[in-house]
Amino acid sequence: MRNAWAIRGLFFIALLFLLQEARPVLVPVVIALMLAFVLTPVVRRLRRHGIPEALGAALLVGALLGTGGTVAALLAEPAAQWWERAPRTLAIVLSRVDRWRGEFLGQRSGSGRTASTQEASDPVKARLASEGVALTGSLLTEGARFTLSAASMVILLYFLLASEHWLLSRCIEVLPEKPRLRALVLGGLRALQRDLSRYVLTLSLINLGVGLATALAMGALALPNPGLWGVAAALLNFIPYIGPWGTAAALALAGAMTDAQGLQQLLPAGAFLSIHAIESNLLSPWLIGSRLAINPLSIFLSVLLWAWLWGLAGALIAVPLLISLRCICRRNRKLRVIALYLSASNRPCASLRSLLGPRRSSPAVPG
Fold first, then answer.
1. The pTM is what?
2. How many alpha carbons lie under 13 Å from residue 212 in its C-beta half-sphere?
3. Phi-psi bin for 311: left (phi > 0), alpha (psi -120 to 50), beta?
4. Within 13 Å of residue 96, how many CA atoms lie on the same side as its CB?
5. Which residues pair with 28 in a beta bridge?
6. CA–CA separation, 8 vs 305, rounded Å?
7. Residue 297 CB burial class (10 angstroms; 0-12, 13-18, ≥19)
8. pLDDT of amino acid 215
9. N or C: which end of the chain has fewer CB within 10 A?
10. Burial label, 32 (beta-carbon count in 10 A; 0-12, 13-18, 19+)
11. How far is Cα 240 from Cα 226, in angstroms, rounded to an integer?
12. What are phi and psi of 282, to 5 degrees?
């Protein structure tokens, strides 16, 4: 028994490192599969109206690319303006950090060292100056990799959508000729498509509202390019935990560039965090509902694991993968206890005294 558990542990560790090393290949494949599950009902509905799958998939993928291209074109100029101001922004932030550090350490401007001497002795500034070229090269390399992965993902998504009925028929055909088993697998795939579609659609509507509210708030605070910040907040909000805090940090940096003084520089970040608090505590639980609700601890651990394996792409698909795992566990008698841990439930927990009493029937898995 010990040898069996040891072998399973080694297999799990090897699988994790294999997933990490195969990231360039697996990330576009997994994202394409997730999007295919979400968009397949649309292609199926178009097929019912007489539009072939190949044409329906082309129309859907073209609409997605057109929407993304339009948004990118509208935001290209504001993003370029922020990128051009990035060196000056970094200099302003570093100078203010130097001033705050001097005030904290009790240093004065007349301490006997000139500004050039302080800048030369500052390891942070020296590191930034020495690695500027390397940073630019890394950005170009990552940009090329992202372009290649995005193109692969789009092409694979089209083929998955165009051949969804054929793939599904072949998957059911290779199963043993047991009607109950085939019906169980087909029902599970349909349920997974339904849950993922509902989750992504609901989350998209929520993030659209977050983006609009953020743009209005940044416009009221006179922050330049409020539309850019609204789109950034909406897109980053798809990444649990990491995305909202990344948006807040960027807004804090943007607030430091303004002419505001003191705590007023933190108003953009504070306004967004208020919007995020309303969304995460009131809006999302109400719209997502109990059927799609997942244990917050499971979400945090999933984001932590997949972000370690695949970076931001892994954090982005962590929740859809968790929904897929829960859907599989619900339809397997041996794995239903895992689904019980993954699901969020408003049912109050039983007391320890009642659990230590006579054994009763196991609680049903929610959903």
1. 0.76
2. 6
3. left
4. 14
5. none
6. 19
7. exposed
8. 93
9. N
10. buried
11. 22
12. -120, -55
| Distance, CA of 361 to CA of 359 (rounded, Å) | 7
Sequence-ordered list of residues with C-beta below 8 angstroms from that of 219, at least 6 positions apart, any chain: 226
The answer to whether 340 touches 363, Cβ cutoff 8 Å, is: yes
Residue 125: how many CA atoms within 13 Å on its side-chain side? 17
Which tokens sit at 263?
């705590």
Compute the distance between CA of residue 344 and CA of residue 331 in angstroms, rounded to an integer.
Answer: 17
Residues near 53 by beta carbon (within 8 Å), at least 6 away in sequence = 43, 47, 161, 162, 163, 164, 165
Q: Which two tokens stand for residue 184?
A: 């169980």
Spatial distance between the Cα atoms of 324 and 338, rounded to a whole number of angstroms: 12
Q: Residues 327-351, buried b or exposed e (16+ Cβ, 10 A)?
A: bebbeeeeeeebbbebbbeeeeeee
* Six-digit token string for 247: 């948006």
Closest CA to 284 of 306, 87, 110, 276: 276
Residues 277, 268: Cα–Cα separation, whole Å: 14
Distance CA 317, CA 37 (A): 13
C-alpha 270/C-alpha 264 separation (Å) is 10
Q: How many helices (H) and strands (E) does the chain have?
A: 17, 0
Is residue 31 a contact partner of residue 153, using CB atoms and an 8 Å limit? yes
Cβ–Cβ under 8 Å, residues 89 and 253: yes
Longest C-alpha distance within the chain, in Å? 87
Q: What is the pLDDT of residues 286-324, one digit of tens each?
A: 877 656 678 888 888 999 999 999 988 899 999 899 988
Between the alpha carbon of residue 295 and those of residues 18, 285, 301, the distances in Å are 27, 12, 10
Task: Return d(Cα 186, Cα 189) in angstroms, integer.
Answer: 5
Contacting residues for 340 by C-beta, under 8 A, at least 6 apart: 363, 365, 366
Could you tell me if 142 and 134 are in contact, meaning their C-beta atoms sit under 8 angstroms apart?
A: no
Cα gap 323→286, rounded to integer Å:
18
Q: For residue range 263-285, what is the model confidence (pLDDT) as tens digits?
A: 777 888 999 999 999 998 888 87
Structure tokens of 129?
């100056």
Cβ 232 vs Cβ 251: under 8 Å: no
Distance CA 9, CA 56 (A): 45
